[in-house]
Amino acid sequence: MMAQTLNALHTHLNGSKESLAKEASAGNQAGRQDARIGHVGLHVTIKVSSLAEFRSFQARVVEKNIPIKFTLNNGVSFAFYFDDPDGHMLEVYWPTGDLSHRQPFAEPLDLSQPDEALLGKLTATI
What is the pLDDT of residues 36-66, one digit of tens each? Predict the structure, then answer.
C-alpha cells in the first residue's frame, strides 16, 4: 500500500515537474529570469483510522528497514515520521480526537508501551 502510494506520488510529481519546467522556460524567454519555484507543499491523506492501524503501519515501515526519524504524541494526534526514497519527510498520524492541546505540542511517544499507557498520556498531558 505504501509503495503504491509513493509510486503514484512519484509519477504525479514527475509529470508536474515537466509542465513546471516548460512554464519556467517560457517565463525565462519572456524576460522573467528571476521567477522560480522554491518550495512545494503537498496535502495528502496518509492519516490512519485507529491506534491499531497506526501501530501496524509503523511496524511495516520498520520491517522494510526504513528508519523512523521520530515518533511523537502531538496531543491532537500520535505521529511518526520517516523519509521517502527521495529524502522527503513523510508523516503518518492517528488523530486522537483530543483537540484541547494548544499547538505546537510534542513529546516523544514510545510505541513499545501498551495501548492503555499510550492513551493514558492523552489525559495526563491535558
Answer: 777 777 777 778 999 999 999 999 999 999 9
